[in-house]
Amino acid sequence: MSQRMQGQPMIILGEDSQRVKDRDAQEYNIAAARAVAEAVRSTLGPKGMDKMLVDSMGDVTITNDGVTILKEMDIDNPTAEMIIEVAETQEDEAGDGTTTAVAIAGELLKNAEDLLEQDIHPTAVIKGFHLASEKAREEIDNVAERVDPEDEALLKKVAETSMTGKGAELNKELLADLVVGAVQQVTVEADDGSYVVDLENVNIETQTGRSAGESELLVGAVIDKDPVHDDMPVEFDDAEVLLLNESIEVEEANADTQVNIESPDQLQKFLDQEEEQLKKKVQQIKDAGADVVFCQKGIDDLAQHYLAKEGILAVRRVKKSDMKFLKNVLGGSIVTDLDSVEDGDLGHGSVRRDEEDELFYVEGDDAHGVTLLLRGSTDHVVDELERGIEDALDVVATTVSDGRVLAGGGAIEVELASRLRDYADSVSGREQLAVESFADALELVPRVLAENAGLDSIDTLVDLRAAHEDGEVRAGLNVFSGDVEDTFDAGIVEPAHAKEQAIASATEAANLVLKIDDIIAAGDLSTEGDDEEMGGAGGMGGMGGMGGMGGAM
Hints:
- The protein is of the alpha+beta class.
- It has helices spanning 22-41, 66-72, 78-93, 98-117, 122-143, 152-163, 172-185, 264-287, 301-309, 320-330, 379-402, 411-424, 431-442, 444-452, 457-469, 496-514, and strands spanning 2-5, 8-11, 18-21, 51-54, 60-63, 145-146, 187-189, 195-197, 202-208, 216-219, 221-223, 235-244, 292-295, 313-315, 334-335, 347-354, 359-364, 370-376, 404-407, 475-478, 483-486, 493-495, 518-521.
- Helix 4 (98-117) runs parallel beside helix 16 and helix 14 crosses helix 15 (457-469).
- It starts with a strand and ends in a 32-residue tail after the last strand.
């Protein structure tokens, strides 16, 4: 880039830099964002397909969880990464609805492109989208049904809806029971009558080799470890438990320390000293009154022997997260120095060993934690099951704390689209067209649900619109029967907060992309070969290949 000044060209950008301006920049950005949305669209809904993701190390992940797919994909495009942030925000705030949020963002940009081609200024589109987003969230609150946090049946429907189409679907009734039970265990009513759900106190443990139908909910913690010594007792109904973040090993000398041993006696003395050190540590544990030790670090072989002699159960290399969870379950505190251990530092509860599963079950007197023990036949099955359960937990927790639910199956999107079209009449100027485009974008959800189920998306949308025109606010698509029906009664229920968050995130991301009219890159914008090799912005071979616009400067 250069510009003439008094007859002399002024060079501003370096040789390798690239610049894409105005309409070309908007096209480049919209194409990149849409490519991300296209990547996850086919996973939406109960009949969505899965993706197999293979990372650079050859590790395989099979999932249809939107945020997992986008995080695992090797994406090398700044605009595409902005859309991925939508999924991550949605996951953090609502726990589910990531695919919906990203798909709506992609559709908003596709519709915006049509408006830009009609010479409508991006500012007008952005304002229209913002107005439509505000109105849509207001209408969600008007349509939403209030839910009692004690209403187990409805909460189970919310959990089942979240799990449908994921790895957890086959046993969704049992798993929904477990999820609702877990959330209720960690729900506390605040002074103002609201409900607070502390999911920090829900732990998920997985185990392969058995079916998902054998998963269970346990009050307390599950530790997948073995005792350090075979002669240790493994059953305690009433145990004092020491949580230790210090190794029961001989203290290491400094790296540059030298020990010169000139005779066998000296060697023996040296070994005796080490043995005394270990004996002292074991004696400190005994004096503290501990029956069980969960140690985050290592335990020396000799110390294991002494602990077994004292009848103390010890487990080593316990994960940091498990230690924190055990502290919640048993009380007490995590000790980092045996020299300063006090009575109040010990936790209290029961510890027993399940020899068949090779797990320790730990329960506290006043348990503040529950564990979901998920089982599955293989690692891939268990991993996908865990992702589905985590989403369901978040969704049920959100529903309990927020207290509002909606009919699923595209019902709310079609109702919002209808109300937004009515609202558009009251919007003046070109923003009116943007509001109508926003309404069209929301209808992507029922269209994709129908497509993914092998149904005709146009016929489905026509039927849905007709039902909503007749005042059937809860009319949605039941993808299993292919019929338009009251999805709320059919048990397809979604949390209102997740839907509000999806619309807000999608709108903000779309507006952020539309506001960019100039891309100045220090190097080549296309990161996957030459422009001639890029099939425009659609080349998804790593998504870096969105630089097909390079020649358009």
